[in-house]
Every structure is written in structure tokens, then in C-alpha cells.
Amino acid sequence: MRGYSKAIFKSSLLNMLITVIALFYTLIMCWLLFHRGRHFGEGYNYNLVPLYTVKKYIIHYDHFNPDIWFKNLFGNIVLFIPIGIFLPLLNKKYLKVFRLTMVTIMLITAVELTQMLTRVGSFDIDDIILNTFGALLGLLMTRLVVRRTL
Fold first, then answer.
1. Worst-scoring range by mean pLDDT, 2-6, 50-54, 65-69, 125-129?
2. Which neighbouring-strand residues pair with 46?
């Protein structure tokens, strides 16, 4: 990609380190998404209305424990920033916004569906939106750092 140092993508030691850290991140996320707080609900829970949950947390913030709405709004963004860092560093084609956005949406949709079908969570379109926003923030940070590196 024009304007980005090719050296950062050619270092095999750096790529190995990034891969190990990305795998560790993946394991932690799998635990957070599928094991921690595991509960089997009755039926399937889902929200297909974009920004419904976000609006509910913002408008009715005083009806929720601050810990709950903070985790649901900001946690869904912050926890997915590493996707926007690791993918572009491991494969420079993900430095492009469209490609990273598409792969992130597919990945998170698969996670949301799995959570709903296994009843360890629910499918929420707002999670996909917030998680993708987090990945795009990670991409922005990565682009800024890579552009200035070496």
C-alpha cells in the first residue's frame, strides 16, 4: 500500500510475535464471548434493529447499573480494537477500510449467531456495529503508526 513502510510487513520475527499475541487475544476473546458468565436462556434472544440497544443504554442510562451500560457500549468497542491492529499487521490487504470492515462484520456475525444458537448470549446487531467500529479504530491507529514507522 502506497505510503506505508514495507519493512514492517517483511520482518518474520515481528510477524511471529504479532501472530502469538493475536492467538492469545483470540483465546481470551473466546473465553469472554462463550464461557464467562455462561447462562443458558430459554429460547433465542436477538435484536435486529440497528442502534436500538445503544439508544436504550444512552436514553435510559439511569435505569442501568453504570457498569452494565459502560461494558455494553464501550467494552464492545474497546475489546475489538485489536482486530483492526492484528489483521492489517499480519496481512497488508486489511489496511483497506472496506476489506477490514467486511471481514470484521463476517467474523462478528458468526460469533453473534453462535452465541445465540448455543444460548450463551444473544444476537444483537448493535454489537456488530460497535465491534466493527472498534476494529476500525484499531485500523486507524495501525495506519497512523505504520505510516510513521521506519
1. 2-6
2. 123
Cα torsion 102, 105, 106, 107: sign: positive
Locate 49 and state its grid cell. Answer: 434493529
pLDDT in tens, 104-145: 999 999 999 999 888 888 899 999 999 999 999 999 999 999
Amino acid at 118: T
Is residue 87 classed as helix, strand or coil in its secondary structure? Answer: helix
CA nearest neighbour of 111 among 99, 125, 101, 100: 125
Would you call 47 helix, strand, or coil by DSSP? strand
Element (H, E) at 124: strand 123-124
Q: pTM of the entire structure?
A: 0.87
